[in-house]
Structure formats: C-alpha cells, structure tokens
Amino acid sequence: MPGPTTTLIARHKTGPAASSHAHGREDHVWARRILIGAALIFMLLFLVVPLVAVFTEALRKGLDAYFQAFQDPAAQSAIRLTLTVALIVVPLNTLFGLSAAWAITKFDFKGKNILLTLIDLPFAVSPVIAGLVFVLIFSHTWWGVWFSENVCHVIFDTPGIVLATIFVTFPFVAREIIPLMQAQGADEELAAVSLGANGWQTFCRVTLPNIKWGLLNGIILCNARAMGEFGAVSVVSGHIRGKTNTIPLHIEILYNEYQFSASFAIASLLTLLGIATLVIKAIIENRHEPGNGGVQH
Predict the structure, then answer these.
(1) pTM of the predicted structure, to 2 decimals
(2) Quick one: pLDDT band at residue 26, thresholds 50, 70, 90?
(3) How far apart are CA 215 and CA 85, in angstroms?
C-alpha cells in the first residue's frame, strides 16, 4: 500500500506543475524545430544555392569550354600570382602571429592593450582603405618613391600585392592562438626552463604541442583569405592583365567582358579551394574536440 509521501509525490507528478512542465517541453521542441528549420533554409538559400549556381554556370557550355578557360595565359598568370602571394604571405603571417601572441601572453609591458587593438585593426578597416594607404606611402612620399625607384617597384607590382595581403590577413593566426596561449599559462614552460630547457626547446616541446591545432586552423584561414582577397589587392595591383591580376581580379575582368562561362569556370576553382579549406578546417576542429584524440584546452 502506498504511503502518504508516495501519494503526495504522485499528485505532484500528475498535478498542474507536471502539466505545465510537459507543456513547456512541447513548446521547447517546437522552438527547436523552428530554429533548426530557419537555419537550414537560410543556409540553403544563401550558401548552398550560390555555390551550386557557380558550378552550373561554369559547366553550362560543356567541359571543353570549362577547361578552355584555364588555357588562357592570363588565367594561368593569375593562378600563379595568387599561389605565389599565398606562399609568401602565410609563412610571414604565421611568424608574425606567433611573435605577437608570444609577446602578449608571456610578457607584461605598457601598451599591451594597444597592441591587441592593432592586431584587430584589419578587421575594422576596409581593405580598400588599406590599399589606398599603401598607394599613398609608396607613391606620394619621398622615401616611398626613392624605394620604388632604387630597390623594387611596390605599387602596381607583386610587392604591393604581398604587402596589402599581409595587412588584411595579419589577425588570423594571432587571434587563433592568443586565447590558447593565455589558457595554457606559463607554469609548464617555467618548469621546463627550471629543468634546463632553452627557449627553443621550451617552445617546441611545451608551447607548440598545446597550440598546434589552433595554429593550423589560423594558417588555413589565413591562406583562404590570402587567395580570395579582392579589395586591397584591387587598389595596389593596377589590374595589369597577365602581370598583376590575381584570381579574384581575373574573374572580375572576365565578367565585365561578358565572358560569363570563363568567369564562372575560374570562380569555380576559387570555390573549390575554399571548400577544401573548410573540409581541412572541419577535420582539424574534429580532432581538436575532447574525446576525438585532440587536445583539450
């Protein structure tokens, strides 16, 4: 026979509170379905459909026309220049990002907050403005003109494109690893130093293993932005066909000349590079998740 306490619990479970709780859970389920549905519809309309449209337009005239777009010497020059710029910019930004993150997280000094703000500056400033600044520096100052005349041409040449891309992509590596290095602290490194490790050994054997996935993630994002940058590169490149046009600039020129199939064919290459970047990023993030063999921070 159930006692008084059991009876009270049973009344509580079947009373108005239980009914209200069940009603709340039902509302929660419907809210979840609506939000998931809205997110899926948004991604379908604004992410998937445009990507499908790129490949549909690229292949509209057949595979021969598609591959013919890549036989154009101007297209091959744009692809070579884009890859060259990425090969220069990504290692430099990796080095700069590591140096900035190390200085911010391992040392206390005046102006640290200013340095953090400056790292975020490319996120806040329009890439077009960044390009105009480099044009101003190397075309309208006496030392900029001297540098261009006696050392190397900067504006409307590859060095200017590299400088503009470095500016735009600078935060990606630093911003990925600064939180990881702050969370890591300095206890393990101090222990390594007390055991006789030098600075390089401490970095390679203590610091780097803890930030490697974040560092790789930052490098991937930096590479993706370097290959797809348009605004700053457009200003400093001069749009010289076959010389200073990167892939995004070549796509724009083809589109403005009504060569739609060739334009979308080259655009599909840039899209594939972006998708490959996302796949690699997803794999890295999956390994970074606790319980998947990654490192938990």
Answers:
(1) 0.78
(2) low
(3) 20
